[in-house]
């Protein structure tokens, strides 16, 4: 899988991809992440990437030219399965969306700033618009990092134990059950005995019950979601 991220702040994205699982995915050659500085595509003599809003009002808008040139260049080099704009008015990111995107080969992500990007870019180039939640961030970089992480950890071979991702929250429309590790007794706080029993049938049953209990208490809307 290849992910190209278009941003005016590439340095902001370097750190999330330089550690832990996202780094390992790249070192193993399973994922390539390329950061593109939109500003370097600007033909303006001061490398401007924004201008005032037609019709007036507060805030700047990202201009078409540098973004269009960057997208055109990338598109001339390979085909993209999705060109995603990170935006609060996009489709809400959830686990099924991450699952679907993890099967793609080439994904482009565009990070907005200021009031957003000129609408004509959205009309001409963008194939998918994604929001990471109903709140407004200053820029799309952290959202692109969140989306990338949710996708990359699902790429086969990235996690040491692939079954781990399948038992995470939201797979099967359930939250994950509680987890415990050593010691079995910490200052009088004990691990549920079933988990120490070695009886895997009983352990599975307990985990399913706890996942259901937790989902009913915290996110009842998730149950039966897949059947809607
Ligand atoms: N004026 C825009 C609006 O009200 O929808 C908000 C612009 S926001 C200050 C700047 C940029 O941050 C957006 O263009 C987008 O790329 C990114 N952004 C902000 N919140 C986001 C969210 N919840 N999900 C994804 N991207 C977001």
How is this fold's topology laid out?
Elements: E1 2-7, H1 10-14, H2 20-27, E2 32-37, E3 50-52, E4 60-62, H3 64-77, E5 82-92, H4 95-101, E6 106-111, H5 119-125, E7 128-131, H6 141-152, H7 163-166, E8 185-186, E9 189-190, H8 200-218
Parallel strand pairs: 1-2, 1-6, 5-6, 5-7
Antiparallel strand pairs: 3-4, 8-9
Bound molecules: S-adenosylmethionine (SAM).
S-adenosylmethionine is lined by residues 86-89, 111-113, 115-116, 131-133, 135-140, 143.
Can you walk through the features of this model?
The chain is an alpha/beta fold and 228 residues long. It folds into 2 domains: 151 residues, 3-Layer(aba) Sandwich (Alpha/beta knot), CATH 3.40.1280.10; 59 residues, tRNA(m1g37)methyltransferase, domain 2 (Trp Operon Repressor, Chain A, Orthogonal Bundle), CATH 1.10.1270.20. It has 8 helices and 9 strands. The chain has a 5-stranded parallel β-sheet with strand order 2-1-6-5-7. Strands 3-4 form a two-stranded antiparallel ribbon. The longest helix has 19 residues. The chain is elongated, with a radius of gyration of 22 Å. The chain starts with a strand and ends in a 10-residue tail after the last helix. The model has no long low-confidence stretch (mean pLDDT 96). S-adenosylmethionine binds next to β5. The site of S-adenosylmethionine (SAM) has 19 residues, from β5.
């Amino acid at each position: 899988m290849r992910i190209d991220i278009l941003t005016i702040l590439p340095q902001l994205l370097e750190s999330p991809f330089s550690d832990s699982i996202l780094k390992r995915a790249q070192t193993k050659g399973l994922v390539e992440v390329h950061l593109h500085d939109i500003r370097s595509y600007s033909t303006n003599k001061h490398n401007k990437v924004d201008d005032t809003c037609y019709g007036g009002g507060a805030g700047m808008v990202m201009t078409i030219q540098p973004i269009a040139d960057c997208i055109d260049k990338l598109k001339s080099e390979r085909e993209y399965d999705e060109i995603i704009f990170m935006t609060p008015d996009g489709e809400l990111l959830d686990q099924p969306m991450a699952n679907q995107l993890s099967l793609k080969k080439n994904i482009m992500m565009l990070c907005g700033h200021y009031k957003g990007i000129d609408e004509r870019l959205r009309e001409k180039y963008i194939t998918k618009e994604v929001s990471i939640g109903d709140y407004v961030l200053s820029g799309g970089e952290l959202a692109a990092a969140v989306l990338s992480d949710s996708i990359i950890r699902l790429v086969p071979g990235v996690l040491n134990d692939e079954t781990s991702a399948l038992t995470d929250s939201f797979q099967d429309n359930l939250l994950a059950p509680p987890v415990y590790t050593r010691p079995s007794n910490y200052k009088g706080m004990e691990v549920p005995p079933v988990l120490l029993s070695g009886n895997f049938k009983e352990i599975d049953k307990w985990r399913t019950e706890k996942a259901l209990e937790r989902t009913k208490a915290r996110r009842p809307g998730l149950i039966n979601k897949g059947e809607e």
